[in-house]
Write a structure and sequence with these properties.
Helix content: 40-55%
CATH superfamily: 5'-nuclease
Strand content: 5-15%
CATH architecture: 3-Layer(aba) Sandwich
Number of domains: 1
Oligomer: single chain
Number of strands: 5
Strand order of the largest sheet: 3-2-1-4-5
Radius of gyration: 14 Å
CATH class: Alpha Beta
CATH topology: Rossmann fold
Shape: globular
Order of helices and strands: EHHEHHEHHEE
Largest sheet: 5 strands, parallel
Number of helices: 6
């Protein structure tokens, strides 16, 4: 199973330098887990940087995976993740879902850089 962090979805939508890295992952929808919080982060960023139509398209692609909503047990688990790994709230939710689904996380977000089960890609400036 795979989780694309919001940064990876945005990189793909922007056709950034790492878009080709993330495309094969997001196209395997039967292996894709999508934390619902990513919808907020991705839609907000893409609608601001491009437009609502582009954001709608990416959200549609995201919805093809297994969407995991934040419930009370994930919220509590993500608190423990946040405390252990010193992650911001959204990142702790994404990482908690990654671990719960025994998935691999794909990201350009430096907060995840040295964590287990993470494929971190640094973007060139």
């Amino acid at each position: 199973m795979n989780v694309l962090d919001s940064s990876a979805w945005v990189e793909y939508a922007a056709d950034g330098q790492l878009a080709d890295t993330f495309e094969p992952i997001l196209l395997k929808t039967d292996e894709l887990v999508v934390p619902s919080i990513c919808f907020h982060e991705v839609y907000k960023r893409i609608s601001r940087e491009k437009d609502d139509e582009a954001a709608d398209h990416v959200v549609y692609m995201m919805s093809q995976g297994k969407v995991v909503d934040l419930d009370s047990s994930i919220a509590i688990y993500s608190t423990k993740i946040s405390q252990t790994w010193k992650l911001p709230i959204a990142d702790s939710i994404i990482y908690a879902i990654t671990l719960l689904y025994e998935a691999e996380l794909w990201t350009t977000d430096h907060h995840f850089k040295d964590l287990p089960a993470v494929h971190y890609f640094e973007k060139s400036v």
